[in-house]
Each structure stands twice: as C-alpha cells, then as structure tokens.
Amino acid sequence: MVEITSPRFKQNAAGALADEQLQKAMNNVRSKFIDKRREAAEALPEFEALRDRAKAIKDHTLDHLDLYLEAYEKKVVETGGFVHWAQTAAEARGIVLDICRMANARTVTKGKSMITEEIGLNGFLETMGIRPVETDLGEYIIQLRGEHPSHIIAPAVHLTKEQVEEDFRRVHDHLPADRDLTEPEALLGEARKVLRAEYFNADVGITGANFLVAETGSSIIVTNEGNGDLTQILPRVHIVVASIEKIVPTLEDASQILRVLARSATGQEMSTYTTVSTGPRRNGDVDGPESYHVILLDNGRSAMLGTEFQEMLRCIRCGACMNHCPVYHSVGGHAYGWVYPGPLGAVLTPSLIGVEKGGHLPNASTFCGRCESVCPMRIPLPKMMRHWREREFERGLNPATQRYGLRLWAFFARHPDLYRAVTGTVVPLLSLMAPKSGRFGWLPLAGGWTRHRDLPAPEKRTFMQQLRDREAVSRQAAA
Amino acid sequence: MSARETILRKVRASLDAERNAEQRAETVAERLARAPRGLIPARGKLPQEERIALFCAHLTKLAATWRRVGSADEVPEAVATYLRERNLPASFRMGSDKRLADLPWSGQRSLEIRTGPSDGTDEVGLSHANSGIAETGTLVMLSGAGNPTTINFLPEHHIVVVEAGRIDGDLETAVGRVRRRFGRGGMPRTVNFISGPSRSGDIEQKIILGAHGPRALHVIVVG
Ligand code: SF4
Fold this sequence. Notes:
The structure holds two protein chains of two kinds.
Chain A: H1 9-17, H2 20-42, H3 47-63, H4 65-78, E1 82-86, H5 89-102, E2 107-110, H6 114-118, H7 121-127, E3 131-134, H8 137-145, H9 161-171, H10 184-201, E4 204-207, E5 211-213, E6 218-223, H11 227-233, E7 237-243, E8 247-248, H12 251-265, E9 273-277, E10 291-297, H13 301-304, H14 320-323, H15 326-331, H16 342-353, H17 355-358, H18 370-374, H19 381-394, H20 398-414, H21 416-433, E11 439-440, E12 455-456, H22 460-478
Parallel strand pairs in A: 1-10, 2-3, 2-4, 4-7, 5-8, 7-10
Antiparallel strand pairs in A: 5-6, 6-9, 11-12
Chain B: H1 3-15, H2 21-34, H3 48-61, E1 65-69, H4 75-85, E2 91-94, H5 98-101, E3 112-115, E4 124-128, E5 131-133, E6 138-142, H6 149-153, E7 157-163, E8 167-168, H7 171-182, E9 190-194, E10 199-200, E11 208-209, E12 216-222
Parallel strand pairs in B: 1-12, 2-3, 2-4, 4-7, 5-8, 7-12
Antiparallel strand pairs in B: 5-6, 6-9, 10-11
The complex binds iron/sulfur cluster (SF4).
Iron/sulfur cluster binds next to helix 14 of chain A.
C-alpha cells in the first residue's frame, strides 16, 4: 500500500523546499504547462462553451449514475467482456489477483493509471509473486526508484534528467557502462528497448480508463506514448480498473469532454492516442487480447454523491489545477502525502482516506482561485476546501484545524523560500485586491483571523522581481 | 449482498433514486438511443478542399509528414519513395485490407510485403484509415484482420492511407461513420484515434518523438 504521510504535510513541505533537485525540476511545471494550456484554450473559440457542456454532461451522468452503470455493464457483457464490482481497494486487488492467477500470470504490464496507485496494486502483486512492470516512461522511472507519482499526468515531473540517468545506470547494468545517457533522447531510447521485451513477455495487461461509455460498453484511454496500447493489445488478458464515476452516456459525450481534456492537461488539441476498447478480440481478428475484464471500483465515491462533494466526481484528472497551483509549484506532489496531489488531492484525499488522515490538506491552499479558473469541469475547488473546514467545525474539531491553518500560514510566511515561491505567483493577484496600503486585509490560509489583523504585504523587492512575469500571470488569470 | 448490489444500492440511496424512478429511466434510455450531438467547433465546418488543407496543416504541426496523390494507383510508388528517401529497407508490413491488397504493387518489384499482424520486427507498417478528422489532424483506425492494431504501434515508421473524401470536419462525424458501419452501440474491438507520432514529455517536460509507438507517421491522402 501507499504509505500515507498526509498528516505530516508541514514537515513534507519543509523537506521539499530544501530539496534543490526538486526545486530545479519544478521549474518545468511553473513554466511549461501553464503557457501551453493557455495557448490551446485561446486557439479554440468554443473552449469556454465546451467547458460548460462538459460540466453539464458529467452532472447529468452523476445524477443518473446507477442507470448508466447498469447500461454499461449490459453492453460489456454483450460484447464478450466481464464486469467485476469492487467496494474497496482490497476487493479490487483481490479481483485482479484472481484474474492473474487464472491466466497463470508471472508478469503484468501496466499502462499509466492513478486508480491502481489508489488501490496500491503494485506492492500487492509483488507480495503475491507477480511482477508488475510500469510502461509509461515516467511511471517506469519512479517504479525503478520505488517512489510514487508526484503529478497525475507527469509522474516523474519532480526529477531531473541527471537523476534518471543515475537510475538507469544502476538498474540496466547489463548495458555497457560507457554509453552516453546525457540527453533525454538517449534515456527514452533505452527505456523503449527494455520495455519492448516486457510487452511481449507479459501475460496480463492492466490499464485504467479516462472514460467508460455506457452506450457501447467501451473503455477509453488517452495517452501520448503508445504504451497503454501495447499494454492492452499484446498480452492475452486485458484488465481495466476504473472508478464508477468514469462513466459517460455516449460516444458523443466522450467527444465533447475529450476536447477540453488534452487542452487542459498538456495543451495538446488531442492527445496522440485516444483508444476506444470494446470487449476481447473478435472472430477473425489477428491481434488483441483474448479476454477483457473491467473492475468497477467504488472506494468512497458513492458516499460523495448527494453531498457537497458530488461535484468533485466530475474530475477528469487533467492535472490543470496542480499545474496552476502556487503551493504545488513550491512543494511538489509528494508533500501531499498520498496518491492525489494539488487542489484535486486536497479535496479528494479526505473523502477517500478519511478526514482524520487527509483533513490537513484543504488548508494547503492560498485560496487564490486559479485552480477553479482553469478546471475544465468547473469544479469549485476552493469552495470545497472550505466545505471541509465546515465539516471539521461540525465535528467539533474546528479550533484545532483553525490553529493548524494559522500555524501553517505562519510556517509559510516564516519560511523565506516558500514565502517567495508562493507569493511570487500570488502577489500580482493579491495586489489587485488591496494594492494601495501595502497591507492585505485578506491573506491565504489565515482565514477569519485577518479580519482582525492586517499582515504586512510582501517586500517590494519580491514584488519587483515578479514584475517582469506579471503580464504573463495576468494573462493566465484571464485565461 | 453482492458488491454489485451494495454499490448500486448506495448510489441509489445517495441520489434519492426512488423518487421519479420512471422519469429517470426514460431520460437515460432516450439519451442512449439518440446520442445527441453536442457543440461542434466551427473550425472544421469547411468545404472539402479547405477541410483537407486543414487536416494536412494539423499533421505538419503534429510532426507527422504527408503527401497527396491523385489516385489509389499512385500509393505503391508513394510508399516506395518514402522508404527510399529515408534510407529504409524496401520492406513493410500490412494487414489483409482489400483496399491495400488490390493496389498495383507489381510496379514496385523490389518491395517486400509482409502480411498479418506485426511481431515487433517490422521497421515499417502500412495501414488504411477508416477516416480522417480535420479539426485536429487525427486518423481513425479500426481493428481487424484488415488493419491489425499491432501495425499502428510496433513499427518505427507508420504509413497510413486515407481517402480525401473521408476527411471529416470533426470528431463526431468520424464517430458517426463507425456507428453506421457497426450499428448503434456496436464497435470493433479497438478504435485508435491517432494524432501524430508517439511522444513523451516525461523527462524534464521535453517532448521527444518515438516513445513506445512509431517515431514517424506518414500520411498518404488519396484523391
Ligand atoms: S479538479 Fe479539475 S483541473 Fe483538477 S484534475 Fe480534476 S478536472 Fe482537472
């Protein structure tokens, strides 16, 4: 299982700030993702209207989720596939194991999937004597390091190429020691060769799903490398692990959401490979898996329906919220201490692992609102983080949480690195709210406390340093 | 109670599904039967020639290459030229698609054609697309013996033939073609929507082509 360190967010964050390699690597998020998303959004005049459509489609689906799940299941069975239902992570792991045992599987290849991270599948399979091999380049790298993804679409974003080179030299020790691995191209070439052999070796291929289509019983994955496809067409058995909220009614509905997914995630208009899989190989087919299984996982989702957290189930895991989050930029994904980092994780983690363990995360926010402004599914992330605080209040835990929030803020403010990093992106936005006095009546994390007491504004020098980026930041805010 | 029943019961309870049960069922059945179209971006709504031009412009942006030929008879020569220009061996893999098998390959005697699914040893694969999508430069590939899915992913170079008359403006029109061919709710095992060659940005967010799939994608537009 993934070790949960969410309750230690503060310590994790302090460690992350002192980590030079991490800070260097995180520059790539700060610069690249934001510009690419903005350019893609600006290039499609209908982008904002499509976000509305995408939201409406998911709202409709969630309101009728039981019926769409039944319709979906019926279609999968009609096309020769199997549907398995799992209430918990443990049940889902057990089903995967049963299928692997039936297939006499020794090696399992895996496409990138956050849901198998959520259920802690790799560690479990290893203890059962089955070797899981991650095939997405980023996932492969972190598997070699015994780590977990630090970003939901760019799992190794926290690493530099020098670190990857070190890992490859350590693990691929059958290759000549004097080979040149200084450039990412060489690293990719080496991983491609090593993994090619694994695809052919594997008995079972496991993928997640970006969508499950009720109309056709299909699962859809969206990738750029092609590893998810080789994972599902070469082994004899294809297992899809997906949570119940991945359902959409029709292919038309999937098409609408696809238009906002890639643009929000990587700034592509369409990811390289969008693959629609339906059942096992057909009579007359010459390739493809002989059997097709879908595991439908609840793991806390059904309890979110009908509550103030239902809207979180619209999430399509694009990563835009973390790409635009100043706290994420500063501390990276691992500090969040479980599977889902960033604003999405701050809302989802307490729902899925319990407020006792994940309840601190909703405070790891500056409430700057950029996550909501870029979320393609228009999920009101800051509002939901506030909901968590209200729940805490109802549970009688509020004073402690409030103190925690203040302590966290004090920690942010005292720690010069994080302070600079966070305010560097937030200052221009804050300055629009209270620019004249040089003091802010409202500050991130301090909540109601600043109603009574102003905190000094960040130093001018910090502000001046940020001026040259200011234009870019306001453009992002407008996007 | 089975996990299935428990989950569905919880979902129904959370949604208060007992109220309006009939109306809910009707709404869902109707949506599944009609599959209403959403908002289609204006950019693909173009006359045919402009649509083809948009498709090709997107291919270029995606780091794919393309060539337009007047008729299907010119495809073998276009394939041979591609191989020659890139110093590739005069050999490729393709499935049993009649539209490919019936081409005048005899004019290219030095070409070795291997048929069937790819086993991972092919440097070049040739496929026939079901259609193209102008709004994003996307190819729509249907699985089957005609165009085995392995050919889309295992070779280093993927050459794809698409008919100019089957380049649609948008994704929904392409989906409509698949639906007409397989019937409502029916699908081939795999539909691959392919937009450019394989790529990864996983190391320091630098985009590199040829991650696990083809390093190069070449499209031959016919007609
Ligand atoms: S919450 Fe929104 S922005 Fe964040 S991953 Fe989900 S869909 Fe994307």
